[in-house]
Amino acid sequence: MSNDSKGKLIVIEGIDGTGKSTQARMLAEQLRSQGLQVKQSFEPTNGPWGSKLRASATSGRLSIEEELELFLKDRRQHVDELIQPTISSGGIVILDRYYFSTMAYQGARGIDPLEIRQANESFAPQPDLLLILDLPVDLALERVGVRDGQANEFEQRDSLQFCRDLFLSLQDEPFAKLVDASRDIDEVHRQIMENVTV
Ligand SMILES: Nc1ncnc2c1ncn2[C@@H]1O[C@H](COP(=O)(O)OP(=O)(O)O)[C@@H](O)[C@H]1O
Ligand SMILES: Cc1cn([C@H]2C[C@H](O)[C@@H](COP(=O)(O)OP(=O)(O)O)O2)c(=O)[nH]c1=O
C-alpha cells in the first residue's frame, strides 16, 4: 500500500540496542523545534494486543502463529487510530519499529519475510523514509545488557543476527537509508538529519 497522504511517515528500525528510541526522541525534538506537527510512536504499542506481546517477552514466548496474529492486530489498530489519521492531516509520524521488525523477528522464527511484508502492506502504508540503524550484534547486546541486565526471549544472539541481516537486505529500497549506529549519539543524529529533508 503506497503512502499518498499529505504528511510523512518516518520509520526507525534496527535490532535491540541500536539506539532507535534515543534517535526517535532526538529527531522528534528537532522537527518540533522547526514548528512541525510531530507524533512519536512505537510498536508493539501499549494497546491491548501490544501489551499482551510485551508481557510474553518475559513470561514465555507465544507460538509463532499467535505472535504474528497479535503483531498484525496491534498494527491494524495503530494504523487506524494514529498513523493514517496523522499523516492524512499533514502531520509527521516517527515510528520506533514497524512491519520491518515483524519481517525480521518473526522471520527469524521461520515465517517467510516476503509473506509477512505482503500481509502488512495490504493495510499499512509504506514509509516515506526508513532509517535502518545498523550495529554488530555483540555491540548491540552490550548496550541492551547494560540497560536490562539480561537479554529477553527476543534478544538471542543468533536470531538477532538474522534480524540484522534482514534489515540490511532492505537498504536498497527507494525509501531506505542505512545509518551507522556504532558512532556516538550526536553523530548518529547528524547522519539521520542529513536524510531528513523537511
Ligand atoms: N550511539 C550510541 N552510542 C552508545 N550508546 C548508545 C547510543 N545510542 C543509544 N545508546 C545507549 O544504548 C542503550 C539502548 O538505546 P535505545 O535508544 O534504547 O536503543 P533501542 O531503542 O534501539 O533498543 C541505551 O542505554 C542508550 O543510552
Ligand atoms: C514491532 C515488533 C517488535 N518485535 C520485538 C522486538 C523487541 O525485541 C520486542 C519488544 O519491542 P520493544 O519493547 O520495542 O523492545 P526494544 O525497546 O528493545 O526495541 O518485540 C517483534 O518481534 N516483532 C515486531 O513486529
UniProtKB/TrEMBL annotation:
The lineage of its organism: Bacteria, Pseudomonadati, Verrucomicrobiota, Verrucomicrobiia, Verrucomicrobiales. Residues 12-192 form the Thymidylate kinase-like domain. It comes from the Bacteria. Belongs to the thymidylate kinase family. InterPro entries: P-loop_NTPase, Thymidylate_kin-like_dom, Thymidylate_kin_CS, Thymidylate_kinase. It catalyses: dTMP + ATP = dTDP + ADP. ATP binds at G14, I15, D16, G17, T18, G19, K20, S21. One of its GO terms (biological process) is dTDP biosynthetic process. Its EC number is 2.7.4.9. This is Thymidylate kinase. One of its GO terms (cellular component) is cytosol. Pfam families: Thymidylate_kin. It comes from Oceaniferula marina. Keywords: ATP-binding, Kinase, Nucleotide biosynthesis, Nucleotide-binding, Transferase.
